[in-house]
Amino acid sequence: MNLVSFAVELPSMVLAVAGKGVLVSLAALGAAAALRRASAASRHLVLALAAAALLLLPVLVAVLPAWDLAVLPTVETPRGASPAVAAAFIPKDPHAAAPGTLGGGDAPRGVSTVGRISLGQPGFLPLLSLAISLLLLLRIALAVHGLSRLRTGCRPAPAEWQELFDRDRRQLGIARPVRLAISGSVTMPVTFGWLRPVVLMPEAALEWAAQPLRDALLHELSHVRRGDWPIQVIARAACALHWFDPLVWLLCRRLLLEAELACDDAVLRAGTGAAGYAERLVSLARQVRATARRPASAVAFARPSGLASRVAAILDAGRRRGGPGRLAVAGSAAATLLLLLLVAPARLVRAASPSGGEIQSPKPRQTAASTFPVDSLPPLLRAAWEGNLAGVQRLLAAGADPDQAVPRLGTPLILASAQEHREVVAALLAAGADPARAERAGERPADLQRTPLGAAARQGDPEVVRRLLAAGAPVDLAPPGDATPLMNAAERGRLDAVEALLAAGADPKAVVRGDGTPLIAAARGGDPDVVRRLLAAGADPDVYVPGDETALQQAIDHGHTEAARLLLEAGASPLTGAALEQAVQQGVSGALRDEDSFQDGIRDGSDPMNLLEHGAKD
After folding, report:
1. Which of 287, 268, 285 is nearest to 614 (CA)?
2. What residues pair up with 392 in beta bridges, in sequence order?
3. How crowded is residue 317: how many other Cβ atoms within 10 Å of its Cβ?
4. Alpha helix stretches (DSSP H) within 357-461
5. For 549-610, what is the HEC assignment?
6. Cβ neighbours, 10 Å, residue 337
7. Are 482 and 451 in contact (CB under 8 A)?
8. pLDDT (tens digit per residue) in 239-263
């Protein structure tokens, strides 16, 4: 492929890699979720194979011969339509030799290729994407190169350490030599290298007791045996190539966390007590979090991010801690290879037209602003949606029912509240519209709610909220399939609406299965002012709702650092995941709150969120 050909192909290749990367990431994350009851090593295997597949995907897309998958819907023009009209609905292919051909070759009748998409200036965005990927890859290369300075700037570990280290290395079945050294450049144990792996211990480790030292050495040796460092480099390289895809970054975070969990399992299988190991891990993280220094490309023992999940997994007595067998490894590798070979060369094309290949104009696409054909609405609902006050008043004066309802859309009052048309809301209420009427029929568009107050709270217009409340709208009404108005306002950070609802008596402790509580919704949305206001109103930070867990868990899962910090300061229990469920079942949701507990490990110091602010990143 010459330079000109590459420049022509680049936009379509970037789009193909992006779309197929999403499929690979979704498949891997879905498989990992399905294996939630399996061992961490099994989940790590699936994610590691996916990372390697993502790294190979651009190469395979470029070199493998494409095969056509006729799944896209046929698009036909009305009879008599001009060729220019037809051409407007078919993206142009720079390689098309003539109509009906596929890259210069003959195409089956009725099948047309999916053309390449123009991105403004031809090739600019793909070239920019490629440049960003190259910069990120260069950053990784520089980080890996920087590890060589650590090799030369460390000193040998004490002889008694080396003896213990070599004995554990042989017990783990590691045949190649592994260097053990002490470095002043790190504050926690780290591991890096593949052919010549190195385990670096911090200077402070010279004062550690025998058991914490052996825990750390076993954990790091497990990283070496499993090959976690090269896998981590592969995953970070995949993130560099797919930097625009959040699913790939999520996959990388899960991969790093599962590696740590798998090594923790190896330490526990060696006979270490779970409670003592968790306590020592938290204690070490507490010591190093203020001055934590480790190479970005090294694998660390007690890095703070992901610590909550690690402690919960360590204390979960029912957790599986073994590794996948050879058959499972081979099967997973074969499945990944098959998926890659199917996805990489696939090219979606339009199916054959049943009318002989004629092209018809597509139906107008419904947008988020309209969600439904406005012209087909009854006059009053259309006027309410559009905010046409004069039209609403004229129709009401002519006898239109202010509570006229359309399935899936609701009443004029719901539509006007969803669009924040204050005057229209006032006119409908004055005409007798029922503020308590809920629409329950069928699936609803994403931008609507089932009650007028729910719609107003979601949009956050405090004036509309107050008018509906004054007219008698139930402040805590949660019809089937919807949350309370306070939950809708809290999740979207509508502080003014939250204040209006609380002033009207909204319950900050209400519980709705599937939506949680107002505080859980606020933590999911991440607005710290709303979280602070609900806590001040008496919301309980430790309420557990199956499926939504706790407010702290939602804040951590969605990366809302400030909201999580506020919850911890309000006394939220740090228990999450399996440990949380077990605690709730046993009635001990206030567990781990003594002076030497994990709770203090999180709360101690000037920045209590350092241990949790990145969630499951590592």
Report:
1. 285
2. none
3. 8
4. 379-386, 389-397, 412-418, 422-430, 452-459
5. ECHHHHHHHCCCHHHHHHHHHCCCCCCCHHHHHHHHHHCCCCCCCCCCCHHHHHHCCCCCCC
6. 14
7. yes
8. 999 999 999 999 999 999 999 999 9
Q: Which residues pair with 16 in a beta bridge?
A: none
Give the whole-angstrom CA distance, residue 517 versus residue 531.
12
Short-list 369, 380, 381, CA closest to 409? 381
3-state secondary structure of 350: strand
pLDDT of 291 strictly over 70: no
Is pTM beyond 0.70? Reply is: no
Decide if pLDDT at 133 tops 70: yes
Interval 552-568: pLDDT, tens: 888 888 888 888 889 88
CA distance 604 to 611: 10
Write out the two tokens for 567.
């919850």
Residue where the block lists tokens 């099948």: 111
Distance CA 349, CA 357 (A): 13
Domains along the sequence of the chain with CATH:
3-117+328-350 (no CATH), 125-317 (no CATH), 366-475 (1.25.40.20)
378-to-368, 400, 452 alpha-carbon distances in Å = 20, 10, 18
pLDDT at 269: 92
Q: What is the residue type of 526?
A: G
Q: What average pLDDT does the chain have? A: 77
Element spanning 68, H or E: strand 67-72
Question: CB of 58 within 8 A of CB of 13?
Answer: yes
Q: Average pLDDT for residues 40-47, to the nearest whole number?
A: 95
CA distance 436 to 434: 5
